[in-house]
Amino acid sequence: MDARHLLPFLQEQNVLSEEQSREIQDELSRSGKPVEMILANFGIIQMPQILEKIADSMGLPLLADVSGLDLSPELLARIPPHTARNLGALPVAGDETTLTVALADPLAVQALEDLRFATGREIAQVVAPPEQIQPLLDKHYGSAEVNIDDVLRELENAPDASVTSEGVDLNEAGSAPIIKYVNTIIARAIHAKASDIHLEPFEKEFKIRYRVDGALYEMAPPPRRLAIPLTSRVKVMANLNIAER
Question: Whole-model pTM?
Answer without folding.
Answer: 0.62
